[in-house]
Amino acid sequence: MLRSRHRPLAAATAVLAVAATLAACSDKDASTDKVTITVMGQPAATNKAALALFQQQVAEFEAANPTIDVVGSDVPWDAKTFAARLAGGNAPAVIRVPLTEPPSLIERKQVADITAEASELASFAELNPRVMDFLVRDKVVYGLPEKSYAFGLVYNRELFTKAGLDPDHPPTTWDEVRTAAKQISEKTGKTGFGEISTNNSGGWHLTGYTYTNGGTMIKQGADGKYVASFNDEPTRKVLQWWKQVRWQDDSLGDNMLGKQEDLLAQFTAGNVGMWVSAPPDLYPNYVAAGGDPAKYGAAAMPQGGANATLAGATVLMVSAKASAAQRAAAVKWIEFRALRPNYDPDVAAKYAKASAADGLPVGVPVLPIFSQERYQKVQTAISAYVNVPVKNFASYVDSLNRFTYVAEPAVSSQEIYAALDPLVQKVLTDKNADINALLSDAEKRVNTILTQAQR
Questions:
Q1: 323 CB contacts (<8 Å, ≥6 apart)?
Q2: Mean of the pLDDT values across residues 281-307?
């Protein structure tokens, strides 16, 4: 739903009606000469502190830009529903999407060219090229990053101690993870290693785990078109590992068909020893759900010989249906909320102080969206307000400088993940699952998806 930030209920209702009718891409209001933009990224009402900070930022932005009216949306991105909304002009002006989505959105011409507006930003030249490569096509800029991430191992330090493991030396290989998971399950009665396999998460994790073994999910052929490349040993090793942990060790617990939110709830409650996610992104949700910061551990992504990890980002783009005035307003908002706090030390310190006062996490180690030099300046500026146990992220932080970052599939990534979910689910729920046959079937499905996407 769309929410007003600081208007009374009657006014909020009116805004909702207008937004629904004009698809959040309404042009200038004739009576006020204001440009209204609806923006994704508003925190849910249940996260009161984060929502309050968002509302404060909106108020500050509108005060500095009196001709722009910002309406927040807490509706998360969903590729299936937003495809229709974008095509019909019913999407927010500023859309917030995972890094897997820009190629298809650009191809379908559903997002705007913001080259002129973005290139005028003081921070533009220092943006991380690893992320910007996905947002620029033929020298045309189609989006800007909000945050980037890399897969890592999240673990419960308390369960490690109870199981006789050293929480300051988490496992670094898949063999070590298997051993630790079995020990946690046997010593504590909790789930040693948590897994997810629905809502595209099974394919997502299979991809990330495959990268650690040196594999890929798709590759370009001689004709330049992509084909499936996962029916090989690196992916087979992942599936065999799952089979061992599930059926030989009984370390995966009972729920094989959950999604990330389900596993986060169990982890927060202290019922799961380890699982794979993006540790910096997960931490604020963990704390908001009542998790104990002292128990949170973030380690390097376990490896199978490749020293690599899946990397991605959350990016902000502008609907192609937005008017020129809205496009300019949208980029101003993106610069104000997403870029400045990661670029300007003074702004970073200001928001860090406010966040710390409200009990929000400050100082979570992240994969920078700007240069390393800029990141260090910001970290120095916020150092007085850091309230995160940074030492608990030591293994993860160290890996950011050592590992190779491998991007998610460049074509139809979410569709590929969805096609791989049944493969993962079968291995986790059927003791007699035939891995080779499952891989061959999944290869055919993914190649069909790729063929259709590259016509």
A1: 25, 27, 28, 35
A2: 96
Quick one: the chain helix, strand, coil %, rounded to 5? 50, 15, 35
Looking only at the bridges linking them, the beta strands covering 226-228 and 218-220 are antiparallel
- C-alpha angle 424/425/429, rounded to 5°? 125
Same domain, 292 and 320: no
Same domain, 136 and 170: no
Q: What is the CATH number of the domain that holds 298?
A: 3.40.190.10
Does residue 70 sit in the same domain as residue 94?
yes
* Domain that includes residue 109, residue range: 2-149+313-351
Q: What is the pLDDT of residues 117-132, one digit of tens each?
A: 999 999 999 998 878 9
Task: Read off the pTM.
Answer: 0.82
Place of tokens 């997810």: 196
Query: Based on the structure, what is the number of domains in the chain?
Result: 2
Q: Which two tokens stand for residue 35?
A: 């440009």
**Structure token pair of residue 454:** 């590259």
CB 80 within 8 A of CB 134: no
Q: How far apart are CA 175 and CA 155, in angstroms?
A: 16
Asked if residues 98 and 314 have their Cβ atoms less than 8 Å apart, the reply is yes
